[in-house]
């Protein structure tokens, strides 16, 4: 497994980084063990010009300060009392990032199920579910570099999407960017949020496995 470094989060458009995160394994070291899974769904947020982004118009506050930090920084925030996990992209001062929307659990699955009180595809098939399954219940790691946190991202080459689908982001109903194709997911993967049963690929979950 090759661990990703901060260089992964710059040098190309954030949309491409969001796609490249599909098939990457996210893990977290907890007191009870290691939990994690393969990223199957992401959303890109493009900062100043993006009407759905927290930094639209270059707005900066204590709450979104992590967006302006170095690439590879963690950005956690709450929405309706739920915690969501993001990764900052681009050089410091360019407030762009990727929301992690769904995981296919592969590491410490039983512990993730305990964290969520759910089993099967409902464990981490949504951004708030993902955070809960990973045992994230505070904002203590917000604005922390990935390399200095208990989280890690790694690539084994084992999971490569057969097809990546681009779609409009979820919950963005207003503003001129509401229909931009900035959500990306592995076609047919049952763990993608809102995946319809008739579209689920149970043979290989949409992966090309080496």
Written description of the protein model:
The protein is mainly β and 210 residues long. It has three helices and eleven strands; from the N terminus they run βαβββββααβββββ. It has helices at residues 14-20, 109-116, 127-133, and strands at 2-3, 25-30, 33-45, 74-79, 82-89, 96-107, 151-155, 160-161, 164-167, 183-186, 207-208. The relative contact order is 0.22.
| End-to-end separation | 14 Å
Total strands: the figure is 11
Instruction: Sketch the topology as an H/E string, one letter per element.
Output: EHEEEEEHHEEEEE
Radius of gyration of CA atoms, rounded to a whole number? 16 Å
SSE topology sketch:
Blueprint: E1 2-3, H1 14-20, E2 25-30, E3 33-45, E4 74-79, E5 82-89, E6 96-107, H2 109-116, H3 127-133, E7 151-155, E8 160-161, E9 164-167, E10 183-186, E11 207-208
Antiparallel strand pairs: 1-7, 2-3, 2-7, 3-6, 3-10, 4-5, 5-6, 8-11, 9-10
Summarize the structure.
This protein has helices spanning 14-20, 109-116, 127-133; strands spanning 2-3, 25-30, 33-45, 74-79, 82-89, 96-107, 151-155, 160-161, 164-167, 183-186, 207-208. The chain has 210 residues and is mainly beta.
């Amino acid at each position: 497994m090759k661990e990703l470094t901060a260089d992964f989060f710059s040098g190309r458009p954030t949309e491409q980084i969001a796609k490249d995160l599909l098939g990457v394994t996210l893990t977290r070291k907890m007191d009870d063990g290691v939990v994690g899974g393969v990223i199957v769904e992401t959303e890109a947020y493009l900062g100043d010009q993006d009407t759905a982004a927290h930094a639209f118009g270059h707005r900066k506050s204590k709450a979104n300060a992590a967006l302006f930090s170095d690439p590879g920084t963690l950005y956690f925030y709450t929405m309706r009392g739920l915690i969501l996990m993001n990764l900052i992209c681009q050089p410091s001062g360019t407030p762009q990032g990727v929301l992690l929307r769904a995981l296919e659990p592969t590491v410490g699955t039983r512990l993730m199920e305990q964290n969520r009180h759910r089993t099967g595809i409902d464990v981490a098939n949504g951004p708030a579910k993902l955070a809960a399954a990973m045992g994230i219940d505070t904002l203590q790691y917000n604005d922390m570099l990935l390399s200095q946190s208990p989280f890690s991202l790694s690539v084994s080459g084992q999971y490569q999407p057969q097809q990546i689908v681009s779609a409009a982001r979820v919950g963005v109903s207003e503003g001129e960017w509401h229909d931009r194709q900035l959500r990306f997911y592995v076609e047919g993967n049952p763990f993608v949020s809102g995946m319809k049963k008739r579209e689920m690929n149970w043979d290989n979950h949409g992966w090309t496995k080496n």
